[in-house]
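EI: anyone free to look at a 241-residue chain?
SC: sure, send it
EI:
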Amino acid sequence: MNKNVAEARALVAEMAPLLRAVKGVEKVLCPPFMCLVPVAALLQGTDIGLGAQNIHWEAKGAYTGEVAAGMVAEFCQYVIIGHSERRTYFGETDETVNKKTAAAKTAGLVPIVCVGETLAEYESGQTAEVVSRQIRVGLKGLETEFAAKIIIAYEPVWAIGTGRASNGVDANAVVREHIRKPLAEMYDETTAQAIRVLYGGSVTAANAAEFFSQPDIDGALVGGASLKLEEFVKITQAAVK
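SC: here you go
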């Protein structure tokens, strides 16, 4: 929940040319709902994707204050689903994540499905149980062809906005053991490897390369650092390397 329309336009107008110069990686911006239309106009004709931060699972109806997948699909190609803040503050569950992911499929959006354990779960050794459950329930019933297009974001909740990032080796182990293995059991090994998995949680220009160099991590879901022009551009450049 950052940037009004004028601020978002100013940031993207300055950022877009620098991002366009970064070749060989996918770049996606996910501003607040109010900023989607003006930012879409700024990104038209570029290779920079646009995503929403949330959707409702119903196509339309008496859900005051909610936004349907089809509404954002007019302007976006992606949508973030089940971000830890949605789970923590707004009652998002594995079941609602599943319904929203199915809604994204219907609307033709690529879902960025977030999973990750809280500090209490991490300290009590529940990472494996929590993350694998979020994968199995969140993607339940989705056929292989669509599943291969889904993007998973592993965001250890204890590392988000705390400055306390996980390290590359540990994050990669969670992705390999508790994300890709359940995916292989649900679908097949080829699909499990095809699904892109991002790391999210206090990603900065200083530590991005550590995560990008890991074999099972395909990119980053960037939070606070994406509001800083030079920082975000440097992170995308680190992804190229």
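EI: Strands lie at 27-29, 48-52, 78-81, 110-115, 151-154, 196-199, 219-220.
SC: 👍
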